[in-house]
Write a structure and sequence with these properties.
With about 130 residues, this protein is α/β, with parallel strands linked by helices.
Length: about 130
């Protein structure tokens, strides 16, 4: 009888450790890189602005690939077509862009500023 009780305890402890390991692996898995995610929208920034402002909730946190003209530059990012602010994924990416340049970017939609009527993207990368 004692041997049977000892086997039950070992089985329960082993099961708990295994389950804990898988929960830990699932919880602390690395995030997908923006480069690896396929975009939910491909097109021009002007078309996307019209689409996203009418129904923003369906585009929030989605990855998009847009082509547009840089109308303003900032140390943290740039503005496409006066209505779409893109924050760089890496700070050194700002040296590759110039005002009035047509650019294709990939980024994640993170918000809409009602006051400025501007869409916000982060983790933006320039595509060649």
């Amino acid at each position: 009888m004692r041997w049977l009780k000892k086997n039950k305890v070992i089985t329960i402890v082993t099961s708990l450790l295994t389950i804990s390991f898988f929960i830990y692996q699932y919880t602390f898995r690395p995030n997908e890189s923006i480069e690896d995610i396929s975009p939910d929208y491909l097109g021009t920034s002007i078309d996307f602005i019209r689409l996203a402002t009418t129904n923003f909730d369906s585009w929030n946190t989605k990855v998009v690939q847009l082509t547009g003209e840089i109308t303003a530059l900032d140390k943290n990012g740039f503005t496409l077509n006066n209505k779409l602010f893109c924050q760089f994924k890496h700070e050194d990416d700002s040296s590759n862009v110039k005002a009035n340049q047509t650019i294709t970017i990939k980024g994640r939609v993170i918000g809409y500023d009602d006051l400025l009527e501007e869409l916000k993207l982060n983790e933006c990368i320039q595509l060649k």
